[in-house]
TrEMBL record, chain A:
Domain ABC transmembrane type-1 as annotated: residue spans: 83-295
Chief place where the protein resides: membrane
Organism (species): Paracoccus caeni
UniProtKB keywords: Cell membrane, Membrane, Transmembrane, Transmembrane helix, Transport
Domain of life: Bacteria
Protein name: Sugar ABC transporter permease
Automatic annotation (TrEMBL), chain B:
GO annotation, biological process: carbohydrate transport
An annotated Gene Ontology molecular function: ATP binding
InterPro entries from the UniProt entry: AAA+_ATPase (IPR003593), ABC_transporter-like_ATP-bd (IPR003439), ABC_transporter-like_CS (IPR017871), ABC_transpr_MalK-like (IPR015855), ABC_transpr_MalK/UgpC-like (IPR047641), Mo/tungstate-bd_C_term_dom (IPR008995), NA-bd_OB-fold (IPR012340), P-loop_NTPase (IPR027417)
SMART domains: AAA
Cited Pfam families: ABC_tran, TOBE_2
Cellular component aspect of the GO annotation: ATP-binding cassette (ABC) transporter complex, substrate-binding subunit-containing
Name under which the protein is recorded: Sn-glycerol-3-phosphate ABC transporter ATP-binding protein UgpC
Residues spanning the membrane: none
Family, per entry: Belongs to the ABC transporter superfamily.
Length: 303, 352
């Protein structure tokens, strides 16, 4: 075998050692092909289409226009409104789902005699299709027949006509998203909680720390990696929010609850404007990348 | 102050008894080791004393007070865990100081005590490191330091050396003993290792199946085991046992008469002999003869496994002898070193 190499050169090892190069290429090829086919190619196509004027309704062949689509986006008032709604949904449902998920994970981590009913009930919202959740909750928030208004009436409060007001529509959408997404957060956080050894809590018990102190000084710091992972997932899916507002409010009233993803869908599928739709999708892609990079930087800075 | 007592202390999980009505008094400043095989309930007893495990029946007393209903933090004890349970995200200094911070000890006093404990354990240079950056032995010391800074009434050790390699184990064992001599605090120490029990304890409590088999000083439990289990458990290599029949006061092993004039014995006895009490030759008391099977030189002495025709005994002999495997050997033991146990109940009988 080859003599030991300094670790800095290890990464190029397979390129420089002729005896292993063939094997390395053979092992990597299927994966590279697969990733290329399902990830790189579609994304590249998206970027390319975003540089064309390509509206299927015009009957004209695609025409290269450079960054014109992006300039149009910058001046599009609807884009800024749906971006604002998406930002609100992200800003409300990401922390909301994190807190809900954390509460659920802490509950599921309690020493129940039978763990499976708790875990199962944790999973049900996650297993439900998004569109289905949207339809159920649209019914819950119905002004005449919905359980929410029924409860409000029973407690002697004014019922709310949820889907007539931009504010209450947004509130209903956010509540539904939080309900739907906190179970996945809970799942990730529960896995994180289970990696914390019980003896740490016992040591803290003996050391004199109460429950709240143990939560702050042991659970939270040791859960941080899981929290960051959960936040990354939730933020990306929040930026891409589509199904729930689409089925609940269809973006209404007006476009008060329309999201960026719904706007992309409208332009591409309803208006068949592939160029503009692709350019919007590129913007969403870049936003997701940006948020992920920010989180990763956050872990690296503190870890 | 730091006296500990158990009164009919019991623990059961559902129907399964883990600890069965243990009575024990531990004096202030005493170093007591609970030793026994796994499942003997030793750790459960320690955890009940710490308050980490609920008590099914009986009482736990610390300093004369019943503490059954008290939280671990209210019991004025400190514990060293088997896996050390150091807080991984805190520095050594923060690990040592956590209990003081929680209890509102002022910073200057806390710093002083952390420094003192670190000094005592030789970990002063590690205070700003995280546990992940320490070796096993260093982590063990931090875990002890965390207990020391508290100045509790009682120290609890739950198999603290089992994650260390053999050499380090011996070293830290000595340090724990030194620490006890320095601080004079009551220590309850759980281990499955009888060597740790023998070397550390003022008194050893030998447990099996949730029941105390014997309590005594190391000399007592080694010299006069209360039953066959204790004789076999304490001491390595273990005590040898020969199953003998007794008729008309004559104790007989496989046709060889070993003792006479013992009218007080049941008809079946087990004769116990420590390996070091067997010598090559004849005529010191009882005589045995067998074939050498395996020879294990240890340097200072040599362990010789001898087949007596059915029973295998181990003798600790002078290394100069160099017996050959397969050869016959005569062994002899003084009457004073013979221990007798009832062949059925396995309890110790009066010795010759």
């Amino acid at each position: 075998m080859a003599t030991p190499r300094p670790s800095s050169r290890l990464r190029l090892y397979w390129l420089t050692d002729p005896s292993d190069r063939g094997l390395a290429v053979m092992l990597l090829t299927p994966l590279v092909l697969l990733v290329g086919l399902v990830v790189v190619y579609p994304v590249a196509r998206l970027f390319r289409t975003s540089l064309y004027n390509h509206a299927l309704t015009s009957g004209m062949p695609p025409e290269f226009v450079g960054f014109e689509n992006f300039l149009l986006i910058a001046e599009d008032p609807v884009f800024w409104r749906v971006l604002g709604s998406t930002a609100i949904i992200t800003a409300v449902t990401v922390p909301g789902a994190l807190l809900m998920g954390l509460a659920m994970a802490l509950m599921a981590n309690l020493p129940f005699r039978r763990k499976w009913p708790v875990r199962l009930s944790l999973l049900i919202p996650w297993a439900l299709p998004l569109a289905f959740a949207g339809l159920i909750f649209a019914w819950f928030f119905h002004s005449e027949y919905g359980v929410v208004n029924d409860l409000l009436r029973r407690f002697g409060l004014q019922p709310v006509i949820w889907f007539n007001s931009p504010f209450w529509s947004m509130a209903a959408v956010c509540l539904t998203i939080i309900w739907k997404t906190s179970s996945f957060m809970a799942l990730i956080l529960l896995a994180g909680l289970q990696t914390i050894p019980r003896s740490l809590y016992e040591a803290a018990d003996v050391d004199g720390a109460g429950r709240w102190r143990q939560f702050r000084e042991i659970t939270l710091p040791l859960l941080r990696p899981a929290i960051v992972v959960a936040l990354i997932f939730r933020t990306i899916t929040a930026l891409q929010t589509f199904d729930i507002p689409y089925t609940m409010t269809q973006g209404g009233p007006g476009d008060a609850t329309a999201t960026l993803a719904m706007y992309i869908h409208e332009n591409t599928i309803s208006f068949l404007d592939l160029g503009y739709g692709s350019a919007l999708a590129v913007v969403m892609f870049l936003l997701s990348m940006l948020m992920t990079a920010a989180y990763l930087r956050m872990i690296r800075a503190r870890g | 102050m730091g006296a500990v007592a158990f009164r009919k202390l019991s623990k059961a999980y559902g129907q399964a008894p883990i600890v069965q009505a243990i009575d024990l008094d531990i004096a202030d400043g005493e170093f007591v080791v609970l030793v026994g095989p796994s499942g003997s309930g030793k750790s459960t007893i320690l955890r009940m004393l710490a308050g980490l495990e609920s008590v099914t029946g009986g009482e736990v007393l610390i300093g004369g007070q019943v503490v059954n209903h008290l939280q671990p933090r209210q019991r004025d004890i400190a514990m060293v865990f088997q896996d050390y349970a150091l807080y991984p995200h805190k520095s050594v200094r923060e690990n040592l100081g956590f209990s003081l911070k929680v209890r509102g000890v002022d910073r200057a006093e806390a710093e002083r005590r952390i420094g003192e404990a670190a000094e005592m354990l030789g970990i002063g240079h590690l205070l700003d490191r995280r546990p992940a950056e320490l070796s096993g032995g260093q982590r063990q010391r931090v875990a002890m330091g965390r207990a020391i800074v508290r100045r509790p009434q009682v120290f609890l050790f739950d198999e603290p050396l089992s994650n260390l390699d053999a050499k380090l184990r011996g070293q830290v064992r000595t340090e724990i003993k030194k620490l006890h001599q320095m601080l004079g605090t009551t220590i309850l120490y759980v281990t499955h290792d009888q060597v740790e029990a023998m070397t550390l304890a003022d008194r050893i409590v030998i447990l099996r199946g949730g029941v105390i088999e014997q309590v005594g000083t190391p000399d007592q439990v080694y010299g006069n085991p209360a039953n066959v289990f204790v004789g076999g458990f304490i001491g390595a290599p273990a005590m040898n046992f020969l199953r003998c029949s007794v008729r008309d006061g004559v104790v007989d092993y496989a046709g060889q008469v070993l003792l006479t004039g013992r009218d007080d014995l049941p008809d079946q006895v087990l004769l116990g002999l420590r390996p070091e009490h067997l010598a090559a030759g004849r005529g010191q008391g009882i005589d045995l003869s067998g074939v050498v099977q395996v020879v294990e030189p240890l340097g200072a002495d040599t362990l010789v496994h001898v087949d007596l025709g059915g029973a295998l005994v181990t003798a600790r002999l002078d290394p100069a002898l160099r017996p050959q495997p397969g050869s016959r050997i005569d062994l002899t033991a003084a009457f004073a070193n013979i221990r007798l146990f009832d062949g059925r109940t396995e309890r110790a009988l009066p010795c010759p």
